[in-house]
Amino acid sequence: MIVLDEAPLFPMLKTDGTINRARYPGFASLADNSTWYRNMVGTAQRTTEAVPAILDGKWPTFNRYPTAKDHPNNLFTYMNGTKELDVYQAITSLCPKKICRNAPGESGRMLYKQVLRMEEITQRATISATPTLHFAHVLLPHRPWGLAPDLRLSPDIEKYPDHRSERLVDRRRDNYQSMLRQYVATDVLIGDLVAKLKASPNWDKTMLIVTADHGITFEPGKSYRDHIDVNSPGTLEDIYRVPLFIKYPQQVGASSNDCTASSIDILPTIIAANGVPSGWTTQGADLHTKCTHRSSRTIRWPQGTYELKTKFSSIVKRVKYYDNWITANGNVDDIYRSGLSGSLLGDAVPASAKHKNGVTWHLNGARNYQAIAVGLLAPVPTRASGTLRTESKICAKCEGLIAVNGRFVAVLPELAGMTPQIGALPFSGSLMSRLMGPGANNIELWVADWTTSKPTLSLVGEPT
């Protein structure tokens, strides 16, 4: 059982409501071998309530701690004595201390350790020779968004904070791109889990569950998930609709299910599939034998509750909303293709071009571009940030492009319409890091003028 964190459903989908196989082949392979409960709704917007609801099958309250003492009847106590327990909890401590290790310290929650925990549990589940519960709640694709799609890791992930207004579409789109990038990295780990389990003798008899505690919204001006606004229905879909895939023992082929599933249904479903009564009651339903039909599902946060009555079609509307920023139907490279100049990413810079006078730029962490490596968790910049300055007005249809070793790897739409009066303008852009390798890397800024149908490219040069 894998519980992802801050993993909404909408980024995984195309505008027709199907899983984007080109971008998420790992989740697609999971769906091909499991039951996808696509009308799934989580219970709470915080891990400390959402994960216990998954593990004890009860609606969350805010007067209990995420510990075994406050949730004595849970998945771990149910399995204890009948199966070996292989448990990693990034935040909660619901497994009794005498049985298994609980939540690690702050250093254990670091991004690179979440990748390693996923790889370790995949290995152990593949070779396990005794009946075992392999459980991992990992902080993926949770912030900070430092992973590249190939599982390389950005240095200085949080060293250069973004001080731009949260009301700016540019800022929220940049963050959305960063989350998509890390979601793809998470997909690689899920795909590896499915492939290795399928190749092992454990596959047919294994029950495999992948879900998430809660999601996140990127709507400009709205809280990512700390504050809930029931008058902003789209953000509720972003925050509370999460993936749920269950491969049942001996399941062959794929199934899609639109029952009104909730996180509290997961434990009852496990108990029913395991065939051993728990001796205590839950508030959820067994999804495998009975399709639940709820008129609404309760979502909660510390200041209130709300009855969510929407269907799967509502999440498709959110897919289309974000599709206006970044195409939901494209491949991994299309994550980076924002603005007018997105189509130029991956292209070689012109052999000769005019110089763009009066524009200068500062690049944060410039030294990191000279320390790139290859391999799991090797360093590579994933997001460029810094400041731009200009001595004259930039055209409204002009955008910046960052080139590394003669290929365009990032778009900076912020440059459009810039004037000298603005001063130092902060910028941020996701980097197509697959084009960036070891060695001496030359970094340049270019300007693309889209005043006519064919862009005119001019060179600013290296950062100051």
Written description of the protein model:
β8 (297-301) and β9 form a beta hairpin. By secondary structure, the protein is α/β, with parallel strands linked by helices. α4 (111-127) packs parallel to α5 (169-198). The protein has eight helices and 16 strands. It has two domains: 2-323, 3-Layer(aba) Sandwich (Alkaline Phosphatase, subunit A), CATH 3.40.720.10; 337-461, Immunoglobulin-like. 21% of the residues lie in helices and 19% in strands. The longest helix is centred in the middle third of the chain and has 30 residues, at 169-198.
CATH class of the largest domain: Alpha Beta
The best one-word shape is elongated
Spans of at least 5 consecutive residues whose pLDDT stays below 50 are none
Question: Which fold name corresponds to the CATH topology of the largest domain?
Answer: Alkaline Phosphatase, subunit A
Number of domains: 2
Q: Mean pLDDT score, rounded?
A: 97
Number of continuous helical runs: 8
What percent strand? 15-25%
What is the structural class? alpha/beta
Distance between the termini: 49 Å
Say how many strands there are.
Answer: 16
Radius of gyration: 23 Å
Report on the biggest sheet.
Answer: 7 strands, mixed
Side-by-side strand order of the widest sheet? 3-4-1-5-6-2-7
Task: Give the helix level as a range of percent.
Answer: 10-25%
The named CATH superfamily of the largest domain: Alkaline Phosphatase, subunit A
The CATH architecture name of the largest domain reads 3-Layer(aba) Sandwich
Helix-strand sequence: EHEHHEHEHEHEEHEEHEEEEEEE
